[in-house]
Amino acid sequence: MTAPGNEEMEEDQEVVKKFMNIIRRAPHGTIYTYEALEMILIMGAFEQDISVAFIDDGVYALVKNQDTSEIGIKGFSNTFRALDGYDIEKLYVDRESMEERGLTEDDLVVGVEVVSSEELGNMMKEQDVLVPH
Amino acid sequence: MRIGILLKEGPYNHQAADSAYRFAKAAIEKGHTVESVFMYNDAVINVSNKADPPQDDRDLFKLWSELGSQGVDIWACIAASKRRGISNEVLGENCKITGLGTLTDIAMRVDRLVTFGD
User: Fold this and answer.
1) Count of C-beta atoms within a 10 Å radius of residue A34
2) Which end of chain A is less enclosed by CB atoms within 10 A, N or C?
3) CA–CA distance from A34 to each of A73, B39, B61, B71, B94 (Å)?
4) Pick from A32, A42, A132: which is nearest to B100 by CB?
5) Does any domain span residue A5?
């Protein structure tokens, strides 16, 4: 049995968990990436340790100079630049995914940390919460 | 173990909804606590009360409502719901609409958040 006082203390303790959102798909074609961004922006308000990993076609979400006018869908790549304003500064791009698509860091709208698949895998192991999108 | 479920696919089109439901039932049977099921993306369709699947098939809408009556919170994300015509007027019994903050809160509280989706 926990004494009531302790229980209260436990509730007051700040919970900080490690959350990683994994963006795996192209920004358009499905809504997964856009709704991932909406989720990430809300999570940012909870003072958690939030990171975002971009793998496979997810890397395309960050490509500069996207023009969505011809598909009649609102573009949102620039919103990723605003993430640091929400205390989300840990953006990781899988090197292999980026290189396979002929992209370099200079092609991306925001500064990211480019990591190997192995490094990313190790980071995933350390997370409390993984949200694949 | 305290478990939260994040479901990201609509019913029938994708097996994720069936898998999430069966996982929840199995976990409860094994003595775990399933706190919440949070519907995101097309999964919000799962909480509609307007569906009428064929009688010789499982009724996922009814199954979620039943799970809701057994103490599991069944939530649908409000932003995703608004896009897809899900509102309080068409909400299944024991299901609720809430914001993404609730999902974050669930993830902070449970031991494990398990995601079902493509």
Assistant:
1) 18
2) N
3) 11, 16, 26, 32, 29
4) A42
5) no
Residue span of the structural domain in which A59 resides: 15-132
Tell me whether residues A46 and B105 touch, CB distance under 8 A. yes
What pLDDT shows up at residue A15?
A: 87
Residue A28 lies in a domain: yes
Which pLDDT tens digit goes with each residue over B58-67?
A: 999 999 999 9
Q: How many angstroms from the chain centroid is the CA of residue B33?
A: 15
Q: Which fold has domain B2-51+59-116?
A: Hypothetical Protein Ychn; Chain: A, (3.40.1260)
Give the chain B residue nearest A31 (alpha carbons): B41
Residue A124 lies in a domain: yes
- When pLDDT is averaged across residues A88-110 and rounded to a whole number, the result is 98
ipTM, two decimals, is: 0.96
Return the number of other C-beta atoms located less than 10 Å from residue B26's C-beta. Answer: 11
Those residues of chain B whose CB sits closer than 8 Å to some CB in chain A are: 6, 8, 40-41, 79-80, 99-101, 103-105, 107-109, 113, 115, 117-118
DSSP strand pairing (A113-115 vs B95-98): unpaired
